[in-house]
Design brief:
This protein is 55% helix and 7% strand. By secondary structure, the chain is mostly helical. The protein folds into two domains: 206 residues, HUPs (Rossmann fold, 3-Layer(aba) Sandwich); 90 residues, Tyrosyl-Transfer RNA Synthetase (Orthogonal Bundle). Strands 1-2-3 form a three-stranded parallel β-sheet. Strand 4, helix 8 and strand 5 form a beta-alpha-beta unit. The chain is globular and about 75 Å long. The two termini are 32 Å apart. 40% of the residues are buried. The structure holds tryptophanyl-5'AMP. The site of tryptophanyl-5'AMP has 24 residues, from strand 1, helix 1 and helix 7.
Amino acid sequence: MNRVFSGVQPTGNLHLGNYLGAIKNWVTMQAEYDCLYCIVDLHAITVPQDPKALQAATREVTAGLIAAGIDAKSSTVFNQSQVRGHAGLAWILNCMTPLGWLNRMTQFKEKAGKARDQAALGLYAYPVLMAADILLYKATHVPVGEDQKQHLELARDIAGAFNRNYGMEYFPLPEPMILGAATRVMSLRDGTKKMSKSDPSDYSRINLTDDAATIALKIKKAKTDSEPNVTYEPERRPEVANLIDIYAALAGQSSETVTSLYASSGFSTFKGALADLAVEKLGPLAADMRRLLQHPDYIDEVLRAGVERASHIADRNLREIEAIVGFLKP
Ligand code: TYM
């Protein structure tokens, strides 16, 4: 059976990069796959978190997923910490992952920065926990943005190492699914930087909670260059290419089609059309999210039911894995 697993961190606002790179694809995959979507609070605490803010962000991200179109009845939506198997399997996989593999991970280098010795062990082991998330459910497909590609290659290597160690094809090798026209949405202020929750400038990103006026203003202020025409040249004009990719992903068209549509227009026309499109697609999502957040009991119930369903699969698989590893259950 084909099973999808993917995750999102409950750290601050969901933004357009999360939506176009991941969540929009999660929604469409529900029709064909058995889907598990996880709010990864264990990953969030690899850097310091305020406990109250972490709780609030967990509810907010859950509301965002539902508002975006994840159907909590057919998909399993849950928070990672409450299914004990994630941490349990991560330990087993930690013990068979060579340090050399982790030393290659570029995200650790970016996040740890110069103060490497101050970074937590958990931040270093982060990609192993991610492998555990996926493998705990024997997921076959993992829809993510482009920035998670290296972590997914590692997850495949770890699955292969486990299978070889124990001489059996226990874990399927999970397939990354990096889909759509905007797999790497860039900052609206700097086309060489990824759109991210941690950017200090709010004008660098469109949050899924932004209202129509804010979305339009951020697009209007988005950096372009002094050339008058809309052309698609990602290397030379990264900011313009980013706006074209965003338009294409929101409209479900290719970047080439969008470019030819606006080739003879100036930026004010193109940005105006992009703002209208973004407001049309994201406005209802934001409204729904705000409405859901008025009902924390409903959100908690979604997570509770999700934890129960996820635990059912996770507990069974972890029991098998523990037997393979040789843990005695007297
Ligand atoms: P996170 O929380 O950083 O992001 C969630 C999803 O959004 C995608 N994304 C983007 N896509 C395009 N452009 C961007 N600017 C952009 N920013 C974020 C991410 O690629 C991701 O798909 N480690 C993961 C969470 C995770 C996970 C997993 C994912 C934990 N366990 C197991 C898949 C499978 C993360 O930090 O995502």
